[in-house]
Write the structure tokens for this entry.
Amino acid sequence: MNMNRKTLKMAACCMAATVVLTASPSAVFATEAPVAGMTNITASALQDTEASENTERDSEKKDSQKSSGAGITQQIAESMNTEEGAASESSEEEQPAEPSQNEQESESPQEEPGEEAPQEEQPDASSGEPQPVDIVGAGITQLIADSILDAEEEAEEEQRKETERKSVYDNIAIAQVDNFVNVRDAATEEGEVVGKLYNNSAATVEAEENGWYKITSGNVTGYVKSDFVVCGDENLAKQVSRRVATVDTETLFVRTEPTTESDVLEMVPDQEQLTVTDESVDGWTKVSVEKGDGYVSNDYVKMSTEFVTAESKAEEEARLAKEEAERKAAEKAAKKSSAGSGAKASAGSSTGSAVANYACQFVGNPYVYGGTSLTNGADCSGFVMSVYAAFGVGLPHSSSALQGVGYGVSDMQPGDIICYSGHVGIYIGNNTIVHASTPEGGIKYTSPVNYRPIVAIRRIF
């Protein structure tokens, strides 16, 4: 049985009225006029329903109810998917045309003998009252669209929370050995050594096999015995890692407070890496610089977590060859260089002591941001670069890049490069460094060496 217009109006109006009546009080008062229109529509629909109940037989009502559900669903789908069809239906409601004889016959319900067919009530276009199809169609479409949008937003929020719950330290194994543990190509002590995982170095665990972990660390993939690493200890992983903010703008202002109106504590160049000390302030990160801790805007830094990773056999061989070449070049240059006056360097390699003594003669000269002159002014990395240049060693003009020169050591000796977050100096012995500190301090001595957390110790000679 086909569904007539009156049944569709009744169902749609009831749906719209339900939406209005379940809205919050503030929303109802904010749309007083539309609600009044909805009330009139609902009342009209109820009157139509009552008239229909008095004239239609029970059997016809049951058949009509069974078919009306499917008809309503089909009509709503057609209203949403075909705007032209909805507009046409609206036009027909506003200006109903006189149906033809054939249309009247096809639309009229089958009559039982002796029963008068119910007359369909025609809407009064001149009454000025809201037409149900326009308002209800728009309301239902908007309700469905809002529901879909809410569902998408809830899914995105849940995905964001799930990502936050996953720690960057998940599946991280930390080597806990005296020196290093061998990484082998098979889960057996007979496997070939493909690299070394040094103490406190980190690896990502990919699988476990008979007391061995399959790991990836740096450029090394292989197996280590589970006895020599600690897996799943987030506190240990945080202790041996470094949270880093890398500058992503030409010059970054480090401020005293997390606001653009606060004073500038220090300026930091592009690609400089700063140690993060706090990330609890929305939009800002607290970092360590030479003058102390300050804040940088998250818009101008990229965040990462750094671990010391394994060294492959090829990388180890290349490093040793490079260190040997640098030692020979430095020794040759040191013989041609005369040591300057200043603080006395303690015992160590003869070339390293020569570097330390040479650097000390520039104490008292100015600090200049971006400078490389040992007499007219240099910044911290420019000072180290220019000191080593006198011994024939080329170094980068960046404190972060200096963390990768030479080779890393744990015991300091004169001439070693001491790296801090956003800063660098030269060790001269007796728990002291010489460095280009700040515009206020210039090139000076500082003791103890660990006046700030040390990021790396690099040795050239």
